[in-house]
Design a protein that fits this description.
Blueprint: H1 6-12, H2 22-30, H3 41-53, E1 64-70, H4 85-96, H5 100-108, E2 111-118, E3 129-131, H6 149-168, E4 173-179, H7 183-195, H8 211-227, H9 237-244, H10 247-261, E5 265-268, H11 271-283, E6 291-293, H12 302-308, H13 325-343, H14 347-350
Helix pairs in contact: 2-3, 3-13, 5-13, 6-10, 7-8, 7-9, 7-11, 9-11, 10-11
Enzyme class: transferase
Pathway: Nucleoside biosynthesis; alpha-ribazole biosynthesis; alpha-ribazole from 5,6-dimethylbenzimidazole: step 1/2
Family: Belongs to the CobT family.
């Protein structure tokens, strides 16, 4: 793609967190009143958070979940057993507080914001809704690119702006969820084009298609990929996003980049959310250094995508709902990792003998 605006170009330039404190962070973790390594994955996460914040007393204030919603033109081709109207119906469910993501965010004290990135419907004003649709759904990518270059830029900038808004209110940990009938199809095409894996390894049952529906979905996506052949040896990530993505996926991509740019701890959800991260990581690989991967989804392709990104998920619960539910469930564990690094007593401070004092 041709050059982006200076604002977006700056967003793409992300520096990796400094490793200057790595040795002191490792020491701070090891001298807590526990056998070395006994807190397992939480020690890895604590070290990562400490590195991101450059502190042995990290603070994950105001945990926040942004759920981006958008419709997909490819639904008209029959990729989902659910009608497109379900996207809008679920957004209303979010606003009424009745969805799984509402329950999990309430349970764990997580701020929740719903962003209309491009749903084919109108919504009443609501305190939890940011109504900034790029359009009323994307184009059917069987027939044309899902979005124009201008729409892509708008979506990237809008997603970034939502993160900036929450960071200015004190958010230090953020996660992204999504809602959009047809978006597993978009994510599968993004994954295939950016990874080179066979399409069958990327396409799953989404909202629950049967074997016949899965075969039909795969055939449709094969046609779509053939209609937009790759150029060159390496697919351009943003051109691929414009061709196959959704407005909610594009906004998430901008949100990932902005969150890393601002040094936030990012909690990554499932298949669709990770497809947006795959795009962001192709634009700026350092974004991955700010990401904690919440879980391994049961959706086909997610584990392979995690492998591509070199990710180790915290949870394996058989989830495949989306909405950011896996990220919301993982946030308390990530807060616990930061808390033990910040608050747990050391052997010396607690007057407890350690292995070195015992001569072992």
């Amino acid at each position: 793609m041709t050059a982006f605006s200076p604002l977006l170009t700056e967003l793409f330039d992300i520096a990796a967190p400094s490793t200057a404190m790595d040795a002191s962070l490792r020491h701070a973790i090891d001298i807590k009143t526990k056998p070395p390594g006994s807190l397992g994955a939480l020690e890895r996460v604590a070290h990562q958070i400490g590195r991101i914040q450059g502190s042995a007393t990290p603070d994950l204030a105001r945990p926040t979940m942004l759920v981006f919603a958008g419709d997909h033109g490819v639904v008209a081709a029959g990729v989902s057993p659910y009608p497109q109207a379900v996207t809008a119906q679920m957004v209303l469910n979010f606003l009424r507080g009745g969805a799984a993501i509402n329950v999990f965010c309430r349970t764990h004290g997580i701020e929740l914001e719903v962003v209309n990135a491009g749903v084919a419907a109108d919504f009443p004003s609501h305190a939890s809704l940011v109504d900034i649709p790029v359009a009323r759904g994307t184009q059917n990518f069987l027939e044309a690119p899902a979005m124009t270059r201008e729409q892509l830029e708008t979506a990237l900038a809008a997603g970034a702006a939502r993160v900036v808004a929450h960071a200015s209110r004190g958010t230090r940990m953020i996660g992204f969820g999504e809602m959009g009938i047809g978006n597993t199809s978009a994510a599968a095409c993004l994954m295939q084009r950016l990874s080179g894996l066979p399409l069958a390894a990327c396409v799953g049952r989404g909202t629950g298609v049967d074997d016949e529906g899965l075969a039909r979905k795969t055939a449709i996506l094969e046609r779509a990929l053939a209609a937009h052949p790759a150029t060159g040896d390496k697919a351009d990530p943003l051109e691929t996003l414009a061709t196959f993505g959704g407005f909610e996926i594009a906004m998430m991509t901008g949100a990932y980049l902005a969150a890393a740019k601002l040094g936030l701890v990012i909690v990554v959800d499932g298949f669709i959310s990770t497809s947006a991260l795959l795009v962001a990581a192709r634009v700026s690989p350092a974004v991955l250094d700010y990401c904690v991967f919440a879980h391994a989804s049961d959706e086909t392709g997610h584990r392979a995508m995690l492998d591509i990104l070199g990710a180790t998920p915290l949870l394996q619960l058989g989830l495949r709902l989306g909405e950011g539910t896996g990220a919301a469930l993982a946030m308390p564990l990530i807060q616990a990792a930061a808390a033990f690094l910040r608050e747990m007593a050391t052997f010396e401070g607690a007057g407890v003998s350690d292995r070195e004092a015992a001569g072992q």
